[in-house]
Write a structure and sequence with these properties.
The protein has 228 residues and is mainly beta. It contains 2 helices and 16 strands. The strands form 4 sheets. A 7-stranded mixed β-barrel has the order 3-4-6-9-8-7-11. Strands 12, 13, 14, 15 and 16 form a 5-stranded antiparallel sheet that branches. Strand 13 and strand 14 form a beta hairpin. The model has no long low-confidence stretch (mean pLDDT 86).
């Protein structure tokens, strides 16, 4: 074999270009395409960014992390539930990390074509009743494009752009001394109230859950409540 330095340098790199290497099974010398290496890196999680975990969807013979629960070609916009293995495609148990994403905005995107994606609020993540290695996730879709496709790998990660602090303005049109507010902020927000004339008013706040509250005043009036 000629010296490597004697071969010409190719600056026009394409996915079909090949590298020479040795197959671990049988120590056989083989050619490897850059596309093939890229697919392996995606599947193994070798190129995952911080906080991203990769999974295969309906890939025959795939080992490691998988997602399931919907039919191939389901639009991302229609996905409200998926089943995740507790390990990612890299073979690492990531369920404790994924559990911290409940209530936050998350992204599920095809690794070789990011134009196929869904952004969701992860509502819950619970162990499957029949298999402790699987976890069932429920989602509320936020925005999406394309379909989830068989034989592909997908990245799952927090979506910081939609995880920023949120706010809500509630308008009480009729005069009453109890305001029932559904804000859907997913948290216990701070609350400021003004009457119809713009004067700040104080009341007793009762947090029902992280999406609703009531405000009770000593007198009936209408106005606005600002939550953030």
């Amino acid at each position: 074999m000629a010296r490597i330095s004697s071969y010409p340098t190719d600056q026009n790199i394409v996915g079909q270009d090949k590298l020479l290497g040795t197959d671990n099974a049988g120590l056989i010398t083989k050619n490897y395409t850059l596309n093939g290496i890229s697919s392996w890196m995606n599947a193994s999680g070798s190129v995952a960014i911080a906080g991203q975990n990769n999974y295969s969807f309906d890939v025959p013979g795939a080992t490691g992390g998988t997602i399931s629960g919907v039919a191939p070609n389901t639009p991302f916009a229609n996905i409200t539930a998926l089943t995740f293995s507790k390990t990612s495609a890299a073979g690492t148990d990531v369920i404790n990390y994924l559990s911290t994403l409940v209530g936050r905005s998350v992204l599920l995107a095809r690794l070789d074509n990011l134009n196929n994606f869904g952004v969701y609020t992860l509502q819950s993540l619970v162990v499957d009743a029949g298999d402790a290695d699987l976890y069932n996730a429920s989602f509320t879709p936020i925005t999406a494009n394309g379909n989830i496709t068989a034989d592909k790998y997908y990245g799952f990660a927090v979506y910081p752009e939609l995880s920023a602090d949120k706010h809500f303005t509630f308008t009480q049109s009729t005069a009453t001394n109890t305001w029932n507010v559904t804000h859907n902020l997913g948290k216990f927000p701070s609350v400021s109230v003004v009457d119809s004339g713009g004067t700040v008013v104080y009341g007793d706040i009762d947090y029902i859950d992280n999406n609703s509250l009531t405000i009770t005043f000593s007198a009936a009036f209408g106005g606005k409540a600002y939550m953030n």
